[in-house]
Amino acid sequence: MTTTPHTTDQEQENMILDMLDKFLAAEVKPHVQHLEHNDIYPTEIVEHMKALGLFGCTIAPEYGGLGLSTTTYAKIIERMSSVWMSISGIINSHLIMAMAVQRFGTPEQKSHYLPRFARGELRGGIGLTEPDCGTDLQAIRTVAKLEGDTYVVNGSKMWITNSQQGNCLALLVKTDPKASPAHKGMSLLIAEKGPGFIVSKKLDKLGYKGIDTCALSFENYRVPADRLIGGVEGRGLQQVLGGLELGRINVAARGLGVAQAALDEAVVYAQQRKTFGKPIAEHQAIQLKLGEMATRTQAARLLVYAAAQAYDKGERCDMEAGMAKYFATEAAQENSLEAMRIFGGYGYSKEYNVERLYRDSPLLLIGEGTNELQRLIIAKQLLERNRI
To answer: Which of 84, 121, 158, 326 is the most exposed place for a label (fewest CB within 10 A)?
Structure first.
């Protein structure tokens, strides 16, 4: 994707979204059922995504990225997810990694890594969660011990997206396991694959097929010390949490895309399917469902865009991102179930997309922080902003 110096932001967004729609219609939609049901990684689709510059969506133009606003990025993820949610995850985790480097990396790290990230030459994600640690990141046990000019990493990670097909992670480790509080001993490393970086198992999932999600182990895996993001130990958790705001907006946009897809499927089917001599769309029971689904989807859209706009302004937006993530992902879950009910028995068949939407949506309630956690974040920020 390229733009001229005189292209306005709105013109650029329209051009990108139009190009994206054509790509999704021609290169993705015809292949979704085969790839998803057989859990096949979409290699050719990824190559097209590279060519479109999608791996550099939010990376600054000076490093070869598109430099898109978070609002435009959210719209991209929404549209991708409405066709096949899995491909949105291929760029989401990757861009959280890139954002950590762009925001907190040294000048040398930025100039070396960001152009490679933008081209999709280096692709990957974030290595945070562990077998006994998810929401409570301070409880991680993966340790990186500095030996001369190299960190030696030992430990394990779980549920790591893009870890089999990708080749690089922003890896959260403990460089000082005895630090108190624990976050002062946590650091973030740019971890390229090499000896000791072991993809131990690809996880078989309910939904979110096609994309690789794996368990990892690190056995005396060596990382040059100059790949410590920012060059200073003890800042890893803060660097990760900044990226998770973008991640939560992304997951919210995915939820919006799934909710919209479920609504679209239901609206078409309700006008085609007939019972008692008329389309089921003419029955009040179905109209009530469609009305709720449409309202839920539009409310989710407004929350997602509001969070993205706050992020673009550089404002603290953990409450806004939490609201968007919580509501939009619940909308995806509810709309996909209602769509299945409208489809009746056909909705339970793999022949129709609603079955896939129904299986994809539960992940969104959990990923990038559970919805229970989001409600706590919302409440804490609400109280903090309204002290009496």
So the answer is: 121
